[in-house]
Please model this.
Amino acid sequence: MPTIRKSADLGDAHGEISEFCHKYREPVFITKNGEGDLAVMSIETYEELIGKRKLYRLLEDDINDIKNGNTLTEEDMDRSLDLM
Model:
């Protein structure tokens, strides 16, 4: 479960950061003492990023199945579809 904070916690720059994130669909990186500290992005960009991550995991699982010979013949697939 994500932690949620009020926009006021970002201070005066919240509006500008939010506008940039929505307009360009890119994260804004926040530094602390000259070092990378946070990445701020719109909810839409976050959800897209998470969706891609899930897709890549599914593809990786499928590739591993193929490498390990965990596949179905065309006939097996037809039979399993007929059962639906």
Residues 26 and 41 are 6 Å apart (CA to CA).
